[in-house]
Structures are given as structure tokens and as C-alpha cells.
Target: NAD(P)H-dependent oxidoreductase
Amino acid sequence: MKTLIVHAHPEPESLNGSLKDLAVSTLEGAGHEVRVSDLYAMKWKAVVDASDYGSHASRPLKVALDSGRAFDAGALTPDVLAEQEKLLWADTIIFQFPLWWYTVPAILKGWVDRVFTYRFAYGVGEHSDTRYGERFGEGTLAGRRALLSVTTGGPESHYAARGINGPIDDLLFPIQHGILYYPGIEVLPPFVLYGTDRMRAEDYPQVAEAWRQRLLTLESTEPIAFRPQNFGDYEIPSLHLKEGLEPEGRTGFGLHVRGR
Ligand SMILES: Cc1cc2nc3c(=O)[nH]c(=O)nc-3n(C[C@H](O)[C@H](O)[C@H](O)COP(=O)(O)OP(=O)(O)OC[C@H]3O[C@@H](n4cnc5c(N)ncnc54)[C@H](O)[C@@H]3O)c2cc1C
Model:
């Protein structure tokens, strides 16, 4: 395996830092190649702006199109090109982060915003026509596998089906499905450590062993069976629905199809 670990925590001695270090030593110890993008240590620029696209930046700025034009011209900034090269090198990507405000820390969202450019992560392949806006399960990054390793402050019961925070699968859906599966990356079930603010030092060996076991079984882990292309659903409202009827479920990118 060639694993890229994208790590988002400001404190090297944090629990997240320890889990990242353990992932490196475990995977390397098992003979795998590992590279790390430690976003805080890299002082990663987390916001998209015109400077990302140089002479390919339009006025007014068109983030998607300009990012694609800069990508095609090989003119993206060196920090973004380096991350894209790591993604193409990797067959497995691990994201290590604490849950902050129900999602990833801003620096990691900013990594996605800048690295997953048009024409690199999306807008490629057979179904790249943006009129449909649907490319789930295919793209340049297809064939890679990703795993979220997440720590939460809230206890596990708060993330159960009727817990106060809602099911963890729902909270992670925008990341696992919207960000990772959209450009074609298969997503493995997440490794979630709950209630970590109350974790004691003596709990760590058990946690570390659980993480080690997950890491050593990555290759045999089945990905989440997300539903791929959804073209048919777009026709439901106009063609197949009676007035006022609302079909259940999501179509791509969180859009809920509704009858008129
Ligand atoms: C801005 C912000 C927003 C947040 N939003 C949410 C939210 O929406 N939902 C939610 O559930 N939580 C939330 N939290 C809580 C957050 O998810 C947790 O604080 C975080 O996951 C803990 O991870 P850490 O790496 O920072 O832990 P740390 O604080 O580094 O460690 C936690 C504990 O683990 C133990 N430990 C750490 N490393 C080791 C080691 N190597 N060996 C032995 N013991 C160790 C220590 O006892 C330590 O007290 C939020 C926190 C912040 C700051």
C-alpha cells in the first residue's frame, strides 16, 4: 500500500498527533510506504483566492473554471501541485482530525477546496457534463480508498440513531460521500473515537491497539456501498411524479428531489 496521511491538528502532542504517528509507524512496520501532509506544520493556506490561479484567474473570479484552466495549463501553485501529486501517488488516503463543529477543522476543508480542483478531482470522465452535476464514483482519483480517523468530544451515545448530535454516519456523509466518493474515491468505514476529551492516559493503550488493528486490516476492509450515478432521479419530478408527491432519499450532492 502507498498511504497518504492528511493530518489536521495544531498540536503535535495531541491525541490526534499520537494517532497519526502510530499510523506512520504501524504502516511502515508492515512494509507499506507512507507520506504525511501535516497541514498545520506545513502552514497550509486554507482559503481559495485569485492568487491560486495566477494569469488564469478571471475577473470576476470563477473558482471552478479558473481552477480547471490553471490545472490544464500546469499553472496551479506549487503547494497544490505537490498535494495533487501525492494523491496520484497514493492508493490509500487517511484523514486524521478532531471533529470540530460537526465537521473537519477549517484547514482541512481548505485543503480540499484548493487541491480538489476542477479537471483534477471533478469535471473529468464520461459523465463530466456539469449540466447533470453528477459524477459520483468516477474521476481521476477513482480506484483509491480513503478512511476518516476522527476523534469526538461527545460520547458515543450522542451519535447514536436518536442521540442529540445525530448519527455519526449522517455527520460524516458530506465528507465521505460529498467530498470523497464524488471524485471517485472508495470510502472505508470510519475509525471514530468518541468522548476523547474525557479520555485518560491509561485508556490510550487500548485505543492505540484498536487503531493498529484497523490499520493492519485496511486492505481487506470492504468500502461503504455508496450508490453511484443518479441520472435517473433527475427525471422523477417532471416525468413520473403525481402533483405534490415527494420521493424519499437523496440524489447527488444532497439535492432532495421534490414534486412540484
Ligand atoms: C473548535 C472545536 C469544536 C469542537 N466541536 C465538536 C463537535 O462538534 N462535536 C464533538 O463531539 N466535539 C467537538 N469538539 C471536541 C473535539 O472533538 C475534541 O476535543 C477532540 O476530538 C479531541 O482530540 P485531541 O487530539 O484534540 O485530544 P487531546 O486533547 O490531545 O487529548 C484528549 C485526551 O486524550 C489523552 N491522550 C492524548 N494523547 C495521548 C497519548 N499519546 N497517550 C495517552 N493519552 C493521550 C489525554 O488524556 C487527553 O486528555 C470541538 C473542539 C473544538 C476545539
Notes: The pocket of flavin-adenine dinucleotide is lined by residues 9, 14-16, 18, 98-102, 151-154, 196-197, 199-201, 204 (CB under 6 Å). The chain has seven helices and six strands.
